[in-house]
Design brief:
It is built from 16 helices and 14 strands. It has 741 residues and is an alpha/beta fold. The structure holds adenosine-5'-triphosphate (ATP). The site of adenosine-5'-triphosphate (ATP) has 15 residues, from helix 1.
Length: 741
C-alpha cells in the first residue's frame, strides 16, 4: 500500500484542479513564500478528516474555498481527493457488516466542502460518514492526532507538549489510539452503567414500600380467598342440609297441623253431639209413678182382704144351707124376696167399696156390708130357716165375690209388672247417662291431647319460621361473602342424613371463618392484585435489569482491565522500541550523546501526600502516566529541554518524530519545513534520516533547504501564476534550487 496521488480543486489558493502524483518514496514541494505549499500540507489534513478549523488556518468552511483572483473565478465548493494503492487489501472497515465496499485495488478518499460549511465524504465515490473515513484510515495506521503531518513551525510540538499529551502522541504513533478509544468508550459505558444501577436501585428503593404494602394486601387477599374457599365448602354443606331440613320440616308441620286440626274438629263435633241431662227429673217422675201405682196396689189388697172375708162368711153360710138342704131341714125358712133384697144391698155396698176413691169411703162401704151381714144373720138365726132359693142366692154372691177378687188380683199383678217396668226404665236411664259421660270424658281427653299436640306443632312452626328466616339471612350474607355461586348448593329432600349437633357444629365453624374473614378485611381485590402483579413485574424487570447491568459491569471491568493491560504492555514494548530508535537518531543528529523517553507519574491533585508514586502506579497504571524526554548532548551537561537552542530543539524533535515513525510506520509522512532551523551539517544528517525513513513511509517534504531538495526523487514546484491561483508542476533539482534559501 502506498500513497499514489492527491488532487486539489478549489481548495484554498488552488483555484484550479491540481494534482500531485507520488511516484517516488521522497517527494519535495518547493516554491516561493506564499505560493501555497502549506495549503498542500493542509489539503492532506483536510481530506483525512481534520475538524479543527484552526489546524486548517481558517475560521469557517468558506475560508477553505478558493476566494477568486484576477484571473480565476471564485468557487462555491472545494474538494481534495487522495488515492492509495490497495492491491494488498490493507484497507479495512471494522464492522464486518458495513455496506461500504473497500475490496478494490485502489482506494480513493474524497472530502468536499461547501460555502455553507457543509462537508461531504466519499470512499471510492460513494458518499459515507466522516466516521467511516476515520475508521478506514485507522486500519492503515493513519491516526487522528495527525502526528504524521507536521505543519510549519510545529516540529517541536512534541517537545512543548505536556507529558500527558506526549503520551497521547506516542500512543497514536504506536497505533494504540484504538485501544484508548475503546478504553474510554468502555469507561464511559461503565460509569453510565453504574449510574443506571444507582437509578434502578433508587427506583427499587422507592418502589419497595409500596410493593411490600401490595404484597401484604395480596397475601391478605389470598388468605381471604383461601378462607372464602373453606367457607364456601362449609356453606354448601350447611345450606344443603338446612334446605333439606327446612323443606322436610315445613311439609311435616303442614301435614301434621292439618291432620291435628281435622282431628280436633271431629272430636269437637263428637263431643258437642253428646247430650247428657244433668238433673234426675226422669227418675223423680218415674219414682212418683211407681209410688202412685203402689198406692193403688195397697187399696186393691185392702179391698181384696175385705172381699175375702165376706167371701168366707158367704162360704160359711153356703155350707150351712147346703147341710140343711141335704138333711131336709126346713125349719129355717127365708123368703126369697127378702134374701134377694139383702144380696142386692150387699152387692151395692161392695160396688160402692170397689168404686170408692179413698180408703175411708171404702172402709165405710165395707162396714155397712158387715153391719148388713150381722143383722141378716141375727134375723135368720132367730128364725133358723133357710130356703133353697136362699142357697142359690148365696152361691151367686160367692161367685160374684170370687170374680171380683180375681179381678183385683189381676190388677195387682198388672200394677206390679208396671212398677217393675218403670224401675227398669229408671235403671236403664241411669246406665245411659253414665255411659255418655264416660264417652264424653274420653273424647275430651283425646281433644286435650290433640290440642296440646297442635300447640307443640305451632311452637315447632314458630321455631321453623325463625330458622327459615335465619337461613335466608345466612344465604344473603353468604352471597356477599363468597358470591352468587353459593346459591347453587345441592337441593334435595333426601339430604337429611345428619344430626342436629353436626349442623350446629357446622354453623359454629362458619361463624369462626366469618370472624377470621372480617379480621383480614376486604382489600381492593382485583385492582390490588393487578397492581401488585404489575409492580412486582416491574420490580422483577428492574432486578433483571440490575443483574444485566451487574453483568455488564463485570464484563466492562474485565474488558477495561484487559485493555489497560494490552495498552500498558503494548505501550511499554512500543516505548522500548521508540527509545532504541530515538537514541540512535539522536546520536546520528548530534554526533553523540543520548536520549530516551521515560514514563512519569503525574500526581493526582487529590493524592494524599503520604502516598508515594509507586502507590499510584499500583493503583492505576495507564491514566496518571505521562512521558518525559531525557536528553544528554555530547560534551554538554545540559539535560533540560528548555535550555536547548532552536536548532538543538529541531534536531531532538526530528529524532523523536522519526523514531516514533519508525516503530509503526505510517503509509506517509508530511513534513512542512521541519528542517528550517538546521545548519548545513545538520541538514545533511536530516537528509540522511529522510532517506532512511523513506524506506518505510512515503515522505512529502515541504522545504526551502537545498540539502533536503537534493535528496528528493521528485520535486514539485508551487507558484502563483499570473491568474492569482496556485499552480503545481514537476521540476528538476536545478530549478528547485532557485527556491532554496
Ligand atoms: P511560505 O513559504 O511563506 O510558508 P507557502 O507557500 O506555504 O508560503 P501558503 O501559506 O501555503 O504559502 O499560502 C498562503 C497563500 O494562500 C496566501 O497568499 C493566501 O492568500 C492564499 N490563500 C489562503 N487561502 C486562500 C483562499 N481561500 N483563496 C485564495 N487564496 C488563499
Amino acid at each position: 500500500m502506498h500513497l499514489k496521488a492527491i488532487e486539489l480543486n478549489g481548495f484554498k489558493s488552488f483555484g484550479k484542479k491540481s494534482r500531485l502524483d507520488f511516484t517516488h518514496p521522497l517527494t519535495c514541494v518547493v516554491g516561493p513564500n506564499g505560493s501555497g505549499k502549506s495549503n498542500v500540507v493542509e489539503s492532506f489534513r483536510f481530506v483525512l478528516g481534520e475538524q479543527s478549523m484552526k489546524s486548517l488556518r481558517g475560521k469557517s468552511g468558506k475560508d477553505l474555498i478558493f476566494k477568486g483572483s484576477s484571473g480565476v473565478q471564485k468557487q462555491n465548493r472545494a474538494y481534495v481527493s487522495i488515492n492509495f494503492d490497495n492491491k494488498n487489501r490493507v484497507f479495512k472497515l471494522p464492522s464486518g457488516d458495513s455496506p461500504i465496499n473497500v475490496d478494490f485495488d485502489e482506494i480513493s478518499i474524497k472530502r468536499e466542502v461547501f460555502a455553507d460549511g457543509n462537508n461531504s465524504y466519499y470512499i471510492n465515490n460513494t458518499e459515507v460518514r466522516l466516521r467511516d473515513i476515520v475508521e478506514l484510515l485507522a486500519s492503515v495506521n493513519i491516526g487522528s492526532s495527525g502526528h504524521h503531518i507536521i505543519s510549519q513551525g510545529h516540529a517541536d510540538r512534541v517537545l512543548t507538549a505536556s507529558t500527558k499529551e506526549r503520551r497521547g502522541m506516542i500512543e497514536d504513533a504506536l497505533g494504540l489510539k484504538i485501544y484508548q478509544y475503546r478504553l474510554k468508550e468502555s469507561e464511559k459505558k461503565l460509569s453510565k452503567t453504574k449510574e443506571n444501577i444507582k437509578e434502578i436501585e433508587s427506583i427499587r428503593r422507592e418502589l419497595a414500600p409500596h410493593l411490600r404494602y401490595l404484597k401484604k394486601q395480596v397475601e391478605k387477599i389470598q388468605k381471604g380467598e383461601e378462607l372464602r374457599g373453606e367457607l364456601t365448602t362449609l356453606y354448601l354443606l350447611y345450606f344443603k342440609r338446612e334446605h333439606a331440613y327446612l323443606g322436610h320440616e315445613e311439609s311435616f308441620i303442614k301435614k301434621e297441623k292439618s291432620r291435628l286440626k281435622d282431628l280436633l274438629d271431629s272430636l269437637n263435633q263428637k263431643i258437642s253431639n253428646i247430650k247428657i241431662e244433668d238433673d234426675n227429673s226422669f227418675e223423680i217422675q218415674k219414682t212418683a209413678e211407681i209410688d202412685s201405682i203402689l198406692e193403688k196396689v195397697r187399696a186393691f189388697r185392702f179391698e181384696k182382704e175385705n172381699l175375702s172375708r165376706s167371701l168366707g162368711k158367704i162360704e160359711g153360710l153356703v155350707e150351712l144351707e147346703e147341710a140343711k138342704v141335704s138333711r131336709g131341714d126346713s125349719s129355717i125358712t127365708i123368703k126369697n124376696s127378702e134374701f134377694n133384697s139383702f144380696i142386692d144391698s150387699i152387692h151395692d155396698d161392695i160396688d160402692s167399696a170397689l168404686s170408692s176413691s179413698d180408703l175411708t169411703s171404702a172402709g165405710a162401704s165395707l162396714k155397712k156390708i158387715k153391719d148388713d151381714l150381722s143383722s141378716f144373720r141375727q134375723k135368720y138365726k132367730l128364725t133358723g130357716e133357710v130356703s133353697r132359693e136362699d142357697l142359690d142366692n148365696l152361691l151367686e154372691s160367692k161367685k160374684g165375690l170370687l170374680s171380683k177378687i180375681s179381678e183385683l188380683d189381676k190388677s195387682i199383678e198388672e200394677s206390679s209388672e208396671k212398677v217393675s217396668l218403670i224401675r227398669n226404665e229408671i235403671s236403664k236411664n241411669k246406665e245411659d247417662r253414665y255411659k255418655a259421660g264416660e264417652e264424653k270424658f274420653t273424647l275430651e281427653n283425646e281433644r286435650n291431647r290433640v290440642a296440646s299436640s297442635l300447640e307443640v306443632i305451632e311452637n315447632k312452626n314458630t321455631i321453623f319460621l325463625r330458622r327459615k328466616t335465619l337461613f335466608e339471612e345466612n344465604m344473603k350474607e353468604a352471597v356477599v361473602l363468597v358470591g352468587q355461586n353459593i346459591l347453587g348448593f345441592e337441593k334435595g329432600d333426601d339430604n337429611i342424613d345428619f344430626r342436629d349437633e353436626e349442623q350446629e357444629d357446622l354453623r359454629r365453624q362458619i361463624e369462626r371463618l366469618k370472624i377470621k374473614l372480617e379480621d383480614i378485611g376486604t382489600g381492593g381485590g382485583f385492582d390490588v392484585l393487578k397492581e401488585y402483579e404489575e409492580t412486582a413485574e416491574r420490580d422483577n424487570f428492574l432486578i433483571k435489569e440490575l443483574a444485566d447491568l451487574e453483568g455488564s459491569i463485570k464484563s466492562l471491568e474485565t474488558l477495561i482491565d484487559e485493555l489497560k493491560v494490552t495498552l500498558d504492555t503494548e505501550f511499554k514494548t512500543g516505548l522500548t522500541k521508540i527509545n532504541e530508535r530515538f537514541e540512535e537518531f539522536f546520536k546520528l543528529m548530534f554526533g553523540g550523546g543520548g536520549a530516551f523517553l521515560s514514563i512519569v507519574v503525574e500526581k493526582p491533585k487529590k493524592l494524599d501526600e503520604n502516598m508515594d508514586e509507586t502507590d499510584v502506579v499500583e493503583e492505576d497504571k495507564s491514566f496518571e502516566q505521562g512521558i518525559d524526554i531525557n536528553v544528554s548532548l555530547p560534551q554538554k551537561k545540559v539535560k533540560d529541554l528548555a535550555m536547548l537552542s532552536g536548532g538543538e530543539r529541531s534536531l531532538t524533535s526530528i529524532a523523536l518524530l522519526f523514531a516514533m515513525s519508525q516503530v509503526n510506520p505510517p503509509p506517509f509522512l508530511v513534513l512542512d519545513e521541519t528542517d528550517a532551523a538546521l545548519d548545513e551539517a545538520n541538514s545533511k544528517r536530516y537528509g540522511d534520516m529522510l532517506e532512511r525513513l523513506s524506506k518505510y513511509s512515503e515522505l512529502i517534504v515541504v522545504t526551502h533547504n537545498r540539502e533536503t531538495m537534493s535528496r528528493a526523487d521528485l520535486i514539485y514546484g508551487v507558484t502563483i501564476g499570473g491568474d492569482g491561483a496556485s499552480k503545481l508542476l514537476s521540476i528538476k533539482f536545478a530549478e528547485a534550487e532557485g527556491y532554496a534559501k
